[in-house]
Amino acid sequence: MGELLRSMGECTGIGITSHAREIVISGYARRGNWMDAMRTLMEMEVDIDEYERDRDLVGGGNDENVGWVGNDDVYLTVLTSLARANRYDVVNTLLTSMRRRGCRPDVYVYNSLLKLCASDATPRWREALSLLSQCQREPGIKPDLITYTTAMRACARGRKAGKAMELFRAVRDMGTLTLDVYFYTTAMDACAKEGGRRWMVEAMSLLDEMGTRGIVPNEVTYGVAVAACGNAGRWEEALVLLDKMRDAGLRINTITDSFTYSSAIGVCGAAGRWREAVDLIREMKGNGARPNRVAFTSAITACAISRQWESAFEIFKEMKYDGLQPDIVAYNALIGAGMNSNKPKEVYDIWGEMCNMSSSERVSPDIVTLTEVVATLDKAPGRVNRERVDEVFSEAVKRGLILRKDSLDTSLEVDLSSMSFPIARAACRFIFRRIAERSSEDGEIGDLSLITGPPRMREYVREVLRDELTPPVYCMVPKAEQGTLLVKKQVLTNYIRGQ
Fold first, then answer.
1. Pairing with 405, which of 112, 276, 339, 428 sits 20 to 30 Å away (CA)?
2. Exposure string (b/e) for 460-486, b if CB count within 10 Å is 16 or more?
3. Model pTM?
4. What is the pLDDT of residues 84-103, one digit of tens each?
């Protein structure tokens, strides 16, 4: 585009008009090329300033460049590009430049920038408050309710309920703006995202205040209130709010309103209230709303906490039947249900299903999966379950879930300190099998160090080596390294010969 501008000037034999530059600047900015947009904008400002100085010296002259103070749309386009690139330092520079040229940003400009702060994946609450402060000081304009609401949204996204409530009280106490349901709901959302009983009480207080002011809560308001109860672990209050919605005749049967159900199911799930969670899934579907992954997974979690394997599995199958591909969280919730209900075969089968998935399904076991599967099989009796543990652990090593090649572990020094007891037990068997296999290949053996950390893990591993390996493996604790077990070279040699 820069070449286009230059060629325009060369071909016409006249200067490049400000309108042509504006088109190029907007093109750069809309494509996210904020650096070239800023460069072209600054070049235009410099050229116009020089032109006007020369004109004043010689007198006369009249064209569209004279008196150019800036185009609001061009500035807003560049400002938006800068905000999307998270260059708020340059945003402030450009705002200053606008004022200097007599093109003062209006409330629409500030609201547009605040909207970007509130919707950014990275919380931009500091930048939002800075922009709000500038807007409040800007001569000739006043922040409107959208300005304050959007700034509060940015604070909510950053989990800064205190800051959001400061803004809320300041606006309420001013008494110059007519507060609406969106303003209250945003403040409640900030409380819900912060979490905890204190902020739940604050959110419920705002809900009550809406009633006294004659502001009617909508479905989103109640959904946020339910989420506040959920984040405080208060499932009873969440269900009471759902009853209030029904009494008020509010719909909970649209796709957007499924947030309310999901929030209620989530709090029931965290509290292990499986019957309530499953009933809400049924009610949700009966009202025409489609449960999402969060709702299904929360219901499965509730069943898992309450050791209700059959109900958890039914919900899981229903999730698939509804066309939702379970993600890793849903699979781990189901495995947790199997673990708590002592279902080793079912858990082992789920592990196999996850390992055999195609790459397009994008679900594969993680360390949580491994830990729960091994824990389930480890406490189940019988040789077959011991063999399944070894099979699962070997697959996990191949997948890089455990004993990773990019860790500090070597063939003769392994860190077990962060593992659960069942995982450490399986790791010991795997390590010694691998040592025996590799000894026939390279023939070199040295002392083996097992880093165990706390004494409880150290003694547990010592028992595993002594009681579960054949022949038994005896180890020592170095005086200077109490969190380590040392297996001497000769002990390893005897173990290998005994295989």
1. 339
2. bbbebbeeeeeeebebebeeeeebbbe
3. 0.69
4. 877 888 888 888 878 877 77
